[in-house]
Amino acid sequence: MSAAVAEPDPSVTVTRLGSGGPWEAAYGYSRVVRAGDRAVTAGCTSTVDGVVAHVGDAAAQTAQAIRIGLAALAEVGAGPTDVIRTRMYVTDRLYADEVGRAHNAVFGAVRPVATMVVVAGLIDPDLLVEVELEAYLPVS
């Protein structure tokens, strides 16, 4: 039995944008991709100009990562109220409450679906949290 292969829809525009972050070119990915009515970010961390900001402060790192993600989404026409899913990766379960409160400060009224997972570590040991955002934008 062979599987059917879906052909790409030529009417769907795909936009891929980078932020100039240190790992995007080296690892071959985009900061944000919009495909039709969806826009998704890569994992966003508290890395500013190639340096980890807010070392040791999971709440501040979360807020910074969300700001970076929202700035990327804005580049493809999405705002905070368009966010339908977030994923948060934390390096220690002890950070869950402060990460969750920082998430709530931005998305409390929006209430996207959310996942928080404890991971063994991130690419830089000073990073405590990584955040992904997904937005829905109806195509007009």
Structure, described:
The protein has 140 residues and is an alpha+beta fold. The chain has one domain: 2-Layer Sandwich (60s Ribosomal Protein L30, Chain: A), CATH 3.30.1330. It contains three helices and eight strands. It has helices at 24-27, 58-75, 96-107; strands spanning 14-17, 32-35, 38-41, 47-48, 51-52, 83-90, 113-118, 129-136. It has a six-stranded mixed β-sheet, with helices on one face. A two-stranded antiparallel ribbon has the order 4-5. A hairpin with a 2-residue loop joins β2 and β3 (38-41). The longest helix is centred in the middle third of the chain and has 18 residues, at 58-75. The radius of gyration is 16 Å and the shape is globular.
Provide the descriptors you would attach to this structure in a database record.
140 residues; alpha+beta; 60s Ribosomal Protein L30, Chain: A; six-stranded mixed beta sheet; two-stranded antiparallel ribbon; 3 helices; 8 strands; 24% helix; 27% strand
Per the principal axes of the C-alpha atoms, what is the gross shape?
A: globular
Strand content: 25-35%
CATH top level class name: Alpha Beta
Total domain modules: 1
Please identify which CATH superfamily we are dealing with.
RutC-like
Largest sheet: 6 strands, mixed
Give the strand tally: 8
> On the 0-100 scale, what is the average pLDDT?
92
Question: What is the CA-based Rg, rounded?
Answer: 16 Å
Element pattern in H and E: EHEEEEHEHEE
* Range of helix content: 10-25%
Q: Total helix count?
A: 3
CATH-defined fold name: 60s Ribosomal Protein L30, Chain: A
Give the strand line-up of the largest sheet: 1-2-3-8-6-7
N/C terminus separation: 39 Å
Quickly give the CATH architecture.
Answer: 2-Layer Sandwich
Low-confidence stretches: none
Structural class by helix and strand composition: alpha+beta
